[in-house]
Amino acid sequence: MIYTNYKEIDGVGRIVISKDIRKYLNIMPGDVLKIEASNQCITIEKAENKCVFCNSDEKLKEFSNKYICQSCLDKLNN
Ligand SMILES: [Zn+2]
Questions:
Q1: Residue 63 pLDDT more than 90?
Q2: Which of 23, 35, 56, 76 could form a disulfide with 69 if both were Cys (CB 3.0 to 4.6 A apart)?
Q3: Is this structure's pTM higher than 0.85?
């Protein structure tokens, strides 16, 4: 499904992400969003913690702002 909204940016650079989009992507207050800009395009992506090796989001351990899952950690230790 694709949602398209046209939003006006306010004086300090804020936009509002509409309730339907927040609900669709399960974006909650306090969630972190990754914002990237290139050429004339801005992309906003829900930032989720994932293992740097296999992209798993289960049993993650953080090290130096990166995440590794227990399974990959076990493989590294062997
Ligand atoms: Zn992993």
A1: no
A2: 56
A3: no
